[in-house]
Design a protein that fits this description.
Strand content: 5-15%
Order of helices and strands: EHHEHHEHEEEHHHHHH
Radius of gyration: 20 Å
Length: 264
């Protein structure tokens, strides 16, 4: 059985940045090495514990993506990435090269699109694919052979989320229904509008009852007046929100599954 690990590099960089913020590690030259230390430690622990047969790290490219092209306000409310985060990218790529772990960075697409495409296109009955990330958006990609490997917080154990777990969490039948829950819920950190006045709990209930965004719109007259008004007033942005939260699965990949075989 192949064990394929696809790491969302930027989510790990930010995780290490915040983990060491109060007690940074500084070398003899006065340089903050916290992110590099934390990321490398995570890699070594993952390799020792999980014995991956295949391993790759995906990073967001520095330029804008197809989502920015379609919706210029995408992530417009975010402040610039901290200098330590930006400075970590190049030395991290050198560290990964020393490990012989391929780095995947596809112009025009985010790391989650690269991972979504790799996981979906490489899925087979003889493999288990683990997407290493805390990001809730990855729930939509989970299947019989694709799992989310969610790093533990504050020393807690890793959480492995499969189809049963994601469906139980959201009260849904299929993981791809996560797309419509995120569409309704929106995402303030990415500036995805969603439907005003309906948050996580409301989105879960609506999708659990009606199955999809189309099902909700079809039965909008059955909803409380306030929800009806919110949905009707959001019609022009609902489909854009769905477009923004949907992870791509069909990118032409710059490497093959054989290219990420981990030799240790």
């Amino acid at each position: 059985m192949q064990k394929i690990f696809l790491i969302d590099g930027h989510s790990q960089i930010f995780r290490m940045y915040y983990a060491f913020m109060r007690r940074p590690m500084v070398n003899s030259k006065g340089e903050d090495t916290s992110i590099l230390f934390g990321f490398t430690k995570m890699l070594l622990e993952l390799i020792a514990k999980e014995h991956p047969t295949h391993l790759a790290v995906a990073f967001d490219p520095p330029a804008k993506t197809f989502r920015h092209e379609a919706y210029p306000q995408y992530k417009a409310n975010r402040s610039a990435a901290p200098e330590l985060v930006k400075a970590a990218l190049e030395p991290l790529q050198e560290i990964l090269a020393a490990f012989n772990i391929p780095v995947v960075m596809i112009p025009g697409y985010e790391a989650d699109d690269a991972i979504g495409s790799m996981a979906t296109q490489w899925e087979n009955e003889d493999s288990q694919i683990f997407m290493v990330t805390p990001d809730k958006d990855y729930g939509q990609l989970i299947s019989q052979n694709i799992f989310q490997y969610k790093p533990g917080k504050g020393g807690n154990e890793v959480e492995i989320i499969g189809k049963n777990e994601v469906c139980a969490n959201y009260g849904i039948c299929e993981p791809d229904q996560v797309i419509d829950i995120l569409t309704i819920w929106g995402d303030a950190s990415d500036n995805v509008p969603g439907i005003r006045g309906i948050g996580e709990v409301g989105a879960k209930k609506l999708i659990a009852k009606y199955g999809s965004l189309e099902g909700i719109i079809e039965h909008v007259d059955e909803l409380p007046q306030k929800q009806q008004e919110s949905i009707r007033s959001s019609m022009d942005q609902i489909m854009m929100s769905r477009f923004l939260v949907t992870i791509k699965k069909d990118i032409q990949l710059p490497l093959t599954l054989e290219d990420i075989e981990f030799k240790g």
